Each structure stands twice: as structure tokens, then as C-alpha cells.
């Protein structure tokens, strides 16, 4: 197997929100440039409450918690790409960037000379990632896509909620998030391919297909059996027991994912006879006789409160957990030990807490280096230090309404 050629010393990424150019060093970190509309910027800046307070002017509304949650380690530049001058700035960024991410309806950016085939001529090594609701082709390609819409259309809502209740969306925008993760993996793969070929490529990533992929075993079960899946609430369709159980004062999540765990679970509950019961010997048996088993276990668990059972399960090898609210989640000893929540200094809000990098590396030490940016906070810096525009050019761009 031939070794891969080395990566360039510096890899740059840009986002235009949405289009994003990016500076990214494999030896240190990425520099992500968020290109925003000068008139209000990213829509999520206004998605609240809650908003932070401006520590310098308490009557002025700060940034939305939503915006703060997804924009750490980015720099903001405001560009009006509807002007020729603004398009020229982005063309200059493209020449220096390795990755560009955009989430416009297909064909929108071509009107401004910013489509893949157009900018590829400026930088054949560019990796251009398009994230849309339905993809670049097909009868729905030009429809806008939002998380809740795709959760409904791609089947996720159909299997989410209590069995006796209506379909519901997931508590966070899981379709948006998983699509971002698929795009991230695709960009990394494209970088590896470019290291071998020297060429960039266009990545076509959609909410619809990402959500279909994350239907996972439930989607596969339908394709294999043709049987329409149902909603199971906090239970699992294929594993029993694997659900939330009521206790005397609360609820506890328990998984007996294999026969060994089920035997241990039964021992803890004082139900040692159940694993030899013909109805419950194997997982298939337990799925078939789900209602009978769950009734027996529920009656036993309701004899004591949550704390009793949490202590009883500790260290026994059976997966279990309390159903925490956010106060308990963020005070969780493992969360604190892993230092996932980090405090950073925001230029207007002062000290704010953000969820940090969820992956640990043996060599690299990723961190929250920059707070989420103010609108256009880095415009002058990027024009001056990245594109090397002189003061006169910057002034003329401002006069033309391009920045």
C-alpha cells in the first residue's frame, strides 16, 4: 500500500451561512471563517430567548444561547455577496481556502458566481461541501429543509413518542446534527483523497439522506420484513428488558442487553427464578412475552425508591441510569471529571459556559480557543491578514456596501 502524500502545512475552511471558508492546520487547529450577511448575520443570532446580557450595557440584548452553542472557534466576516465586490472577496478567500461549506438551495450560489463549478476554476484543490434538505438532484432538490420537516418526512417522528400518543420530534435537532457529522466525515475523507490525487471535489450532503441513514436497524428491519415499525416510547423494539421503569418515587433506565445481564438483573431484583422460566430464557422469548415480564419487573421496582435501586445496581455489570434533568446532567461527576463544559470570555457577555470538544486525543489538545464571534468581529482582520488588502481597498469595499 502506497503511503499518502503529506497534508499541506495549513488547511483553510470558509463557511457562507451559509457559505464557510476554513483555515485549518493539522499540526495545530482550524481557522474557520464564518461569512455573514451584514444586515443581521446568521439567523440563529436572533433565535431566542434565552439571550446573554451585554455586561457593558445591560439594556442591550446579547447573543442567543442557540448561536453561542454552535459557533465557538469561528471568526465572523460580513460580506454582501450580492455585490460584485463582495463576490470578489469570496473568490479571493476561495483561492486561499481548502474547504468551503454552504447550505443554500441548489443553484442559488451559481447566480452570484459562487457555485462549485465556478469557484473550482479558481482553486481546483477546493473541497466544496453543500448541505441541503434534499440533495442537489431529484424532484425535491429545490425545497428548503429544516430539521423538524425532515424528522417528519424521513420517518423519525413516526417512531418517536409513546406507543399510545402522537408522533413527536426529538428533543434536540438531531437530524441537523447528524447531517453535520456526516458532512464532517465526508470532508475528512475528501482531504485524504486530495492528498493522493491533488484534486478537490464537491460533497453533496442532505438532511433527508442523513436521516434515512440514521434510521439504522429500524430502517433495515422495515426493508427486510416489510412490517411498519411502531412507536415504543422509552422501550426498545428488539431487546427486552431495555426501557425506563417506574420506581416508588421516580424512574430508572435499565438494559438487560444479553442473557448474562438479564440473569444479573434478576438476581439484583430478587427474581432469580425468571431466567429459567420458559417465557424468558432468551431475548427472543422475552420480546415475545414482553408485557408479562415488564409487569413482573415493574411491580418489584416499585417496592423501593430510585436511590435504593441505583445503589443496588452500582458495580453489578448491568447498564442502568437515572433519568436526569439538566441540573443533574451538568453536575454529573463524570461530566465534571471529563471537563466537557468550558468557560470562555465573551467580548460582550463576559464569562460564559460552553460545551467543549467531545473527543479526547492522545497527542492533540483541542479546546475552545475563541468565543462565538460578534457579527463582523473579524472583518478587518481577515481582509488585512488573510487576504492582505490595504486600507484603501478595505475603505472602498465599505463604501460599495460589500462589507
Automatic annotation (TrEMBL):
UniProt similarity note: Belongs to the CoA-transferase III family.
Single GO cellular component term: mitochondrion
One of the record's GO molecular function terms: succinate-hydroxymethylglutarate CoA-transferase activity
Entry-linked Pfam families: CoA_transf_3 (PF02515)
InterPro entries, per database record: CoA-transferase_III_domain (IPR050483), CoA-Trfase_fam_III (IPR003673), CoA-Trfase_III_dom3_sf (IPR044855), CoA-Trfase_III_dom_1_sf (IPR023606)
The organism of origin for this protein: Linnemannia elongata AG-77
Keywords: Transferase
This protein's name: CoA-transferase family III
